[in-house]
Amino acid sequence: MMHIPSEVYEKILVRLEVKDLLRFKCVCRCWADIISSSFFVHRQLEQSKEDPDQNHRRIFLIFPHVTIPYNSCDDKEDSKSNRISKKIPLPRQFSRDDLKIMGSCDGLICLLSKGYYVFLWNPSSRKVEELSQPSYGCANFYWFGRDSTIDGTNYKLIVGVSGDRFDDRRTNTLYVWSSNTNTDRSSYRWTEMGETVYISKVFEDRGTFLNGIVHWPTYEPNMPNRLDFVVSYDLSRCEIRRLHAPAVIQGGIVNSCYTLGVLDGRLCTICKPIKKFEIWMMKEYGRNESWVRMVRLKEFEPNLKLLRPICFLKNGELIADVDRRKLVRYNFVTKTVQIVKTHNNHPMSDVITYLESLISPRDIIQRPPPTTKSNQKDLRQLIGNLRTIRLAPRNKR
Question: What pLDDT score does 301 carry?
Fold first, then answer.
């Protein structure tokens, strides 16, 4: 049998789809040990992130419960738009009527069921775990992701809880679910932040992450005009800050909305000050005067209210959610809009992107030891054992 270096085995396996890796775990104990090893799981995750062809990136729609591969969205034939999605079964713990997406990170989707129960779910492996029950009330806004400023493995869930109302504004207390790094083996717990945020309305419940800071688009009534601003929370400093939205939004129509996103590594917003959607970018973060209009999207229907950026395809097209009713792709060169998928008119319809991975929700909650060179050495030894495996031929009938 030809000798194949263990590094080659590793490079082949990490490029396979998760569904294939899960099937290969059933081949033999050695293969199961390799694919289940901590080093391999994180190596597969990094490989998926670095893939320029976006083969492992997916879009998850809730109501209907379907997934769409990135690469299927750039299909040039609109007639196939309803055939690129695939139904995905939800865990029995989830509510079928009251379910919200709180965030997505490293292949895990965080969901809020019945307004109180919080779950971490890997749609690729179908594994799910419930978080410890928090002591707060109704969640008003939130975000789930990873805080890379600490050790690169610390996941956080931020929840803003509504309280009493004062002068058309409601108090909001922040709760953070994160690891307690004061212990040798960190465990996750809920912590109430001391600072109170006064907000009248949040246009997007789920925050937008940029450079260690989470952002939410909000507004306050300020008679005779209203005041639009972005609430931000710094993960490392645990500080709350307010940034003004572009001046073109300030004092606008009371029912007009704006959304946030990230473009070229900068904070941007999609708003509709008059009749057309516009993309504005904050050129210098933190300077309210640095907002600059980048492009006006004239191709969208004038009666639309909300345009949420979801992701960018490898060809540069923008995937956006329109009024929580349909998913579209926009080409900045040809100035065309095409429908990717329509929602089922459920009032809680939502969409988010995720990365196919082997990350286990249970491992996140239990905080396993980080991957090290010794883990890599153990993996190479397991791969080396493959050379000793001989699959017996089937008996001929």
Answer: 84
How do the domains of the chain map onto residue ranges?
Answer: 6-46+367-388
Confidence grade of residue 152 (pLDDT, cut at 50, 70, 90)? low
- Across the chain, mean pLDDT equals 80
Residue 26 has a pLDDT of 84
Q: What is the pTM of this model?
A: 0.85
Helices (H), the chain: 6-13, 18-24, 29-36, 38-50, 70-73, 361-366, 373-384
Give the angle subtended at the CA of 322 by the CAs of 316 and 326, to the nearest 5°. 95
* Mean pLDDT confidence for 199-228: 84
What is the reported pLDDT for 187? 63
The pLDDT-based confidence of 5 (bands split at 50, 70, 90) is low
Residue 102 pairs in a beta bridge with none
Contacts of 118 by beta carbon, 8 Å cutoff, 6+ apart = 102, 110, 111, 112, 130, 131, 134, 157, 177
Q: Say how far apart CA 369 and CA 105 lie, in whole Å.
A: 19
Candidates 290, 289, 267; CA nearest to 279 is: 267
Strand order in the sheet with 318-322: 307-312, 318-322, 326-331, 336-342
In this structure, which amino acid lies at residue 325?
R
Quote the DSSP letter at residue 150: T
The edge-to-edge listing of strands for the beta sheet with 139-147 is 127-130, 117-122, 108-113, 99-105, 139-147, 154-166, 169-179, 188-199
Under a CB-based contact definition with an 8 Å cutoff, are residues 313 and 52 in contact?
no
Alpha-carbon distance of 244 to 250, in angstroms, equals 9
What distances in angstroms separate CA 218 from CA 18, 103, 140, 148, one per listed residue? 38, 18, 12, 26
Largest CA distance in the chain: 87
- With bands split at pLDDT 50, 70 and 90, how would you rate the model's confidence at 185? very low
Nearest C-alpha neighbor of 86 from the set 356, 276, 302, 296: 356
Task: For residues 87 and 93, give the distance between their C-alpha atoms in angstroms, rounded to a whole number.
Answer: 18
